[in-house]
Amino acid sequence: MKSLIETIAKALVDYPDHVHVSETVEEHKVTYVLTVHPDDMGKMIGKQGRVATAIRTVVNSAASQHDKRVYVKIGD
User: Fold this and answer.
1) Could you tell me which of 4, 32, 34, 30 has the C-alpha nearest to residue 20?
2) Which of 7, 64, 67, 71 has its CA 20 to 30 A from that of 27?
3) Residues 71, 33 contacting (CB under 8 angstroms)
């Protein structure tokens, strides 16, 4: 899942070397925090949050096989 988020993010930004995904695992949920270069933050969120919503939708679809809820947080 972590590599999926990194792959999507690196394709969208100008500074792919600054893309970092951290993972926090709890009992019934997994939280991924996506950090990008400050200049790329607008590209990751998109107009009216559409890119962020699309990323979350893809990750939730990929995680539907597991018994945990997946959250994607963009930024710190």
Assistant:
1) 34
2) 7
3) no
